[in-house]
DNA sequence: CAGTGGTCTAGACCACGCC
DNA sequence: GCGTGGTCTAGACCACTGG
């Protein structure tokens, strides 16, 4: 299966997998959205170039880096507990003054600084957790395995910013270098806020690439099916 | 239909529109992706808050601003033809030295500067076009109506940057203010490159908001359907 | 034209939320 | 339980690409 190769037709593949064609199509669509296959109406389905476009399919840092072809690593710079300020409490949807676990990590790609990440988690969500376990581990895996918590979703904002003194030093870039600021709030399946993460990414090393679809297909006219 | 209201169940709606439930679902899914409806498994489908999340569903500037609740406008700062530098030629996939139409526009939201956009179009794609028609018009509509060209897609990169002197002046921000840099290459249906656009957005006024899905649904186990 | 992906149907069953 | 969305099926027809 090399880049550019065509997949067997859907009508052939579906029975081979023992599923209906519609079902196969939905599966293929998922892969197409990931950018690893491309369809051509009337022609076929083809293997796409490796990193055609990740868009903003947000995953963990490690996953993201791997998809970009870099080797991710991580170093914990600071870890400890603090009492939530009113502002932080609001983000985490807890009471002001509650205990919060805070971990600051330097994220590296191919051993070079890529981002500084400050993670806040309500202490009662992760009892007895120390900073240790996080040094090169995935926080999400840890949540799942040790606490049985699965994330159900979240909201992330992306802003353009510049590095301050501390960030510049950690990221090894000049003061006021361009950077991305990500702020993410994630929730568990029960709706409870599990984390608030603030990440500053080096603007010279990180960029998005988004594939655009035709803004609006403009539907030829849509079927005359609707009688009303 | 206010925010938070539930839609009638799919099984009721589908026959009302004279379509099969699966078809209705696909239509609803589209709206959900636009962020205007939300589904809750086992509960219903609900009208979402107005600007819940556009993610990076990229549209035109005007469309984007409207969705954000701002009034878009535009002012042409410069327009003319030039011969393509090797670098620009490569982006537009034309020969170095070919004529290129160049338009610089200030994009405003609620009458305040939001972005500077530099548009490059191969001159042979838009014969006899002057900068005039673009002052407050959509370039894409113009392409469609005057030249019969419909965009089929494109690639956009997003970087963090800071404003230079010229941009700072135009955008009315201090020198070296945080900003987003978008670069977009769009193609017509025949694959030909139609435009290369470079946009600098004020970082203090523009931000993304992305809703995150559970990183990987982790499929309970998938049906035992596949016999192979 | 044959072969491909794109869409729709009508109905079944599963999984989840809520009372 | 009951009502909701979520998924699958088997087959039909449409729309596009290519020789």
From TrEMBL, chains A, B:
Keywords: DNA-binding, Transcription, Transcription regulation
Source superkingdom: Bacteria
Gene Ontology biological process terms from the UniProt entry: negative regulation of DNA-templated transcription
Pfam families: GntR, UTRA
InterPro entries cross-referenced by the UniProt entry: Bact_HTH_transcr_reg (IPR050679), Chorismate_lyase_/UTRA_dom_sf (IPR028978), Tscrpt_reg_HTH_GntR (IPR000524), UTRA (IPR011663), WH-like_DNA-bd_sf (IPR036388), WH_DNA-bd_sf (IPR036390)
Bilayer-crossing regions: none
Domain spans labelled HTH gntR-type: 1-50
SUPFAM superfamilies, A to Z: Chorismate lyase-like, Winged helix' DNA-binding domain
GO terms assigned for molecular function: DNA binding; DNA-binding transcription factor activity
The keyword Iron-sulfur appears for this protein: no
Protein name: UTRA domain-containing protein
The organism of origin for this protein: Phytoactinopolyspora mesophila
């Amino acid at each position: 299966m090399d880049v550019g190769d065509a997949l067997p037709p859907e009508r052939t593949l579906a029975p081979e997998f023992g599923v209906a064609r519609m079902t196969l199509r939905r599966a293929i669509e998922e892969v197409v959205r990931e950018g690893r296959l491309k369809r051509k109406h009337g022609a076929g389905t083809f293997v796409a170039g490796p990193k055609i476009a990740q868009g903003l399919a947000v995953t963990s840092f490690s996953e993201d880096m791997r998809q970009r072809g870099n080797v991710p690593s991580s170093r914990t710079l600071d870890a400890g507990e603090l009492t939530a300020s009113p502002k932080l409490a609001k983000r985490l949807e807890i009471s002001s003054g509650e205990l919060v676990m805070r971990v600051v990590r330097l994220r590296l790609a191919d051993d070079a600084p890529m981002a500084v990440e400050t993670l806040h988690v309500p202490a009662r969500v992760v009892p007895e957790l120390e900073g240790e376990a996080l040094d090169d581990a995935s926080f999400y895996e840890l949540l799942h395995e040790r606490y049985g918590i699965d994330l159900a979703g979240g909201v992330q904002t992306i802003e353009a910013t510049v590095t301050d003194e501390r960030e510049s030093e950690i990221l090894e870039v000049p003061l006021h270098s361009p950077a991305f600021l990500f702020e993410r709030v994630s929730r568990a399946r029960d709706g409870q806020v599990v984390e608030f993460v603030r990440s500053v990414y080096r603007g010279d090393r990180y960029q998005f690439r988004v594939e655009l679809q035709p803004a609006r297909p403009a539907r030829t006219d849509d079927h005359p099916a609707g009688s009303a």
